[in-house]
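Priority: medium. Attachment 1 of 2:
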């Protein structure tokens, strides 16, 4: 053994920097929820001021929800129940999502006794966000101390609930539950030939089932109308068939040029609570002063990070708007080649920071609400200059739309045609772009034309 001196360089990230990096990658809704939680935990942040940043009273709604949750727990379970008992686990796990809450509302309306209801609550807690229920019943029976046969009976009841396919074990069983008992062909395809169906092997499926190819195609149309996940059916029943997103930034074309702004800025609404300021000036208690100083410091750090976060977003998206100005002004439908490195070089930010800034963000412009990630397209080098992958995809779509439907072009032929237009891409890249556009292969396109 011997002693020796060693010099090392170690880089550490301050908590404030970690918080900033987390905030940069949040979208508007996530950031609003995060600030709401911070305001509710930190008395130094003025909740009334922050609430003005929201169109609706999220803070009040959250407080009411917390109160109602406490009341429900008090009604359902006695104060003597311990959180580590099966009853405590049931209470915690059954409140996790909208899917589980919807199931719970149906179960509570049944005539189940208290012990069976507790078991239902636990099993509902095992349902994932997609609506599937796939567990080892033997392990669950051993864990909570009930008979495995009783668990099986409860699961069977849960699988009869609305919507059809809820609590299914997997996608196949979910699709099968939505099919009528007399729909024999579609059911057999779902149970044994889903992969072949996705590849368009209609003839092979028809031969295996002993039916005509037209029957297989008719069954395919029926299967495509089914929900692959039980939660999808639940969302459809609630009248929410559309995907709603809240834009994070707005890019408008004005007389002075393109204007970039945040759809919901939070920095103007973050204020220091006057109560904490007055309390700091009116008390001499060291413990109280220490706590107030700590909370004020956290509030100040949060405010600085919100300002830096908004500044970072504006910096990145101003450069994005500048690069894609022709698209936003309406003079061109194609996007220019642009990568994260281009934004990083012009703004002085790191590529990882730019990646966080654009992740999950949506832009509102004259063309609609568009995901920010769609504006980043790689460069395709060719003898005639640089083209974007977006332009290559659009030309590929045009070529396939104008092809002879009785003799569709192969990926190799498409690669040659794109090469003549200056898009030097391989056959594999053509196949990649074609799949991204949702265009099937040559065999399937030809089969559809024959049909």
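Attachment 2 of 2:
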């Amino acid at each position: 053994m011997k002693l020796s001196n060693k010099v090392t360089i170690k880089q550490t990230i301050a908590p404030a920097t970690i918080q900033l990096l987390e905030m940069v990658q949040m979208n508007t809704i996530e950031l609003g929820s995060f600030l709401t939680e911070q305001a509710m935990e930190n008395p130094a942040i003025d909740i009334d001021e922050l609430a003005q940043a929201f169109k609706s009273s999220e803070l009040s709604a959250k407080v009411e929800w917390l109160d109602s949750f406490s009341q429900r727990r008090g009604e359902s379970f006695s104060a003597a129940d311990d959180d580590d008992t099966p009853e405590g686990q049931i209470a915690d796990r059954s409140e996790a999502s909208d899917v589980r809450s919807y199931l719970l509302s149906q179960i509570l309306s049944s005539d189940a006794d208290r012990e069976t209801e507790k078991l239902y609550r636990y099993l509902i807690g095992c349902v994932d966000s997609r609506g599937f229920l796939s567990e080892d019943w033997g392990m669950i029976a051993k864990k909570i101390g009930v008979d495995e046969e009783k668990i099986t009976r409860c699961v069977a009841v849960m699988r009869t609930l609305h919507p059809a396919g809820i609590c299914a074990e997997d996608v196949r069983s979910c699709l099968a539950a939505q099919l009528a008992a007399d729909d024999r062909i579609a059911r057999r395809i779902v149970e044994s030939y889903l992969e072949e169906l996705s590849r368009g092997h209609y003839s092979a499926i028809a031969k295996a089932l002993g039916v005509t190819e037209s029957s297989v195609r008719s069954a395919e149309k029926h299967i495509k109308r089914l929900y692959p996940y039980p939660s999808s059916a639940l969302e459809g029943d609630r009248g929410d068939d559309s995907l709603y997103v809240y834009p994070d930034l707005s890019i408008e074309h004005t007389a002075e040029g393109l204007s970039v702004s945040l759809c919901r800025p939070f920095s103007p609404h973050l204020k220091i609570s006057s109560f904490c300021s007055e309390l700091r000036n009116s008390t001499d208690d060291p413990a109280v002063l220490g706590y107030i100083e700590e909370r004020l410091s956290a509030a100040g750090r949060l405010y600085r990070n919100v300002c830096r976060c908004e500044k970072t977003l504006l910096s990145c998206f101003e450069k994005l708007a500048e690069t894609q100005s022709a698209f936003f002004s309406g003079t061109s439908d194609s996007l220019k080649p642009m990568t994260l490195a281009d934004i990083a070089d012009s703004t002085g930010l790191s590529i990882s920071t730019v990646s966080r800034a654009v992740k999950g963000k949506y832009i509102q412009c004259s063309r609609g609400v568009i995901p920010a990630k769609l504006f980043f397209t790689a460069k395709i080098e060719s003898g005639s200059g640089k083209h974007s992958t977006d332009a290559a995809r659009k030309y590929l779509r045009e070529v396939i739309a104008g092809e002879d439907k009785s003799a569709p072009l192969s990926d190799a032929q498409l690669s040659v045609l794109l090469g003549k237009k200056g898009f030097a891409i391989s056959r594999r890249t053509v196949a990649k772009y074609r799949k991204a556009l949702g265009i099937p292969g040559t065999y399937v396109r030809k089969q559809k034309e024959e049909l």
